[in-house]
Amino acid sequence: MTRTAVIVGAGPAGLTAAYELLARTDVRPIVLESESQVGGIAKTIVYHGNRMDLGGHRFFSKSEWVMRWWESILPVARPLDQSDAPLHLGYQGAHASYAPATRAPPDSDNVMLIRSRLSRIFYRRRFFDYPLKLDWRTFRNLGPTYMAQIAASYAQARVAPRKPEVSLEDFLINRFGDKLYRTFFKGYTEKVWGVPCQEISAEWGAQRIKGLSVTKAVWHAATRWYRSADTRQKSVETSLIERFLYPKFGPGQMWEQVTRRVTAQGGTVQLRQRVTGVRVHNDTISGVDVLDLDSRQTRHLPCDYLISSMPVAELVAQLAPQNERVAATAAGLPYRDFMTAGLLLRRMRGAATDDCADSAVSMPPDNWIYIQEPDVRLGRLQIFNNWSPAMVADPSTVWLGLEYFCAEGDGLWSTPDARFLDFAAAELEKIGLISRADVIDGTVIRVPKAYPAYFGKYRDIGVVREYLDQFRNLMAIGRNGMHRYNNQDHSMLAARAAVDCIAQGSTDRNALWAVNAEEEYHEEAKGEAA
To answer: What one-character DSSP code corresponds to residue 184?
Structure first.
């Protein structure tokens, strides 16, 4: 009899697990997705021919395995007349070569493009480099007195760092100094998470900002002329990566292609299916109850393995633990939700056009811009034209994504779409980046549980992990499945570790939980076995 694995969620984690099961085991995957589209938060939303990337997904990883995996699904586009020559990449005056493992002509659709990364901070109605550099722009924008105060504050943090490093505030001040922290980190971070930085665990900084500091940022700027342009920039801090791969039609294209391969090889991907119950026999998951969201009918689905990327709170509630601490911790795990307003414009204005290489385009060259202005609620601005030209139906228009961080059900979340679009356009106009008269069209996307948060009940996450690990055939993967703020490559590596357990008949979950937590994966890594 064929063994089956029920996989909850068709995001990067779930689809990677399905693909790997088919490639490496005799286990047949059945992927259940409650949405009508695969990809999770890495899906591509299409509105009137314009494509939206929810959150911005750079296809970059320090893992050689992930890079090869992506390239095996979507080859890298390159000029037709350079079939054997390496690709020449350029970024801010630096030029180098990159030889991808795969080749495809640039006019192909099922390809990844090599894109330059530019993100900046918008603060005091001016642009700052991100990461912050000690260059003419910063001195001009802040002034010499303010810069001297930043330097003195950073020196003080280096001489007398905060110990122990418990909160995110401790983490950031120790790496940037109090003055720089309060200028560029505190307000924005609290806008994102909705709580003071003192209440957020330092672990969030360790995972997301990692080894970045003022010293390393300065060194990065000073040596950028000599670095290789290899997209697998394993020795570079994640926050400083300057080039990345990107599917021509957005991140969802990758996961739609994976879905086709999974189904072609005998796996199953079922949409609009919600797991409403998990059945347990002793220490083993025997099956799940599944609700078809269209027919409203429920069926029972037996399984030999359960690989779950559903939110931890939902999974634990369905397992109904007798341990009250486990139940209370899982139920209280915090999340941050967000909304994206997609705005289609004739052009941008003011400061947004200062750095335009082509005045006819009328937009800045950034992939995304961090909006640090305290007088607006807007958190981040994506310019989809700069991710891939194919993201925009009409290249003479500008297609923007305005990201707002909120809580599901709060006043912002509940704002009717038309009113929210007007509010978002007004905020961009207020800070001088557009005129509302240039808005052509728009749409609103709401994303619940987008960001697992590192405060409140999160401090007891260890008891939840211990509880889940006691089930012999249950593996939690993915951002929500592990309640860990992972990138998509981390979710893929966790999925690979879960399949390793199945292929080896192991119940040891340590390798799975170590992804994006172990020192080897972080910035000091010098290499990785294939």
So the answer is: I
* Confidence check: pLDDT of 62 > 80: no
DSSP characters for 427-485?
A: HHHHTTS--GGGEEEEEEEEEEEEEE-SSGGGGGHHHHHHHHHTSTTEEE-STTTTT--
**How far apart are the C-alpha atoms of 145 and 176, rounded to whole Å?**
17
* pLDDT grade for 139, boundaries at 50, 70 and 90: confident
* Closest-CA residue to 73 (of 42, 24, 112): 112
Residue 83, pLDDT above cutoff 60: no
- CA geometry: angle at 221 spanning 389 and 125, to 5°? 60
Residues 404 and 468 in one domain: no
Residues 444 and 487 in one domain: no
Nearest alpha carbon to residue 27 among 525, 502, 516, 420: 502
* Average predicted confidence (pLDDT) for the chain: 86
Residue 245 forms part of a structural domain: no
Bridge partners of 381? 369, 402
Same domain, 318 and 460: yes
In-domain check, residue 248: no
The per-residue pLDDT for range 318-349, each reduced to its tens digit, is 999 999 999 999 999 999 999 999 999 999 99
What is the pLDDT confidence band of residue 353, given thresholds at 50, 70 and 90?
Answer: confident
- 265 & 291 share domain: yes
Between the alpha carbon of residue 108 and those of residues 57, 248, 481, 493, the distances in Å are 21, 9, 35, 28
> Residues 339, 445: one domain?
yes
Q: Are 398 and 432 in a shared domain? A: yes
380 - beta bridge partners? 370, 403
- CA dist 454 and 442 (Å) reads 33
Our count of domains for the chain comes to 3
Residue 307: pLDDT above 90? yes
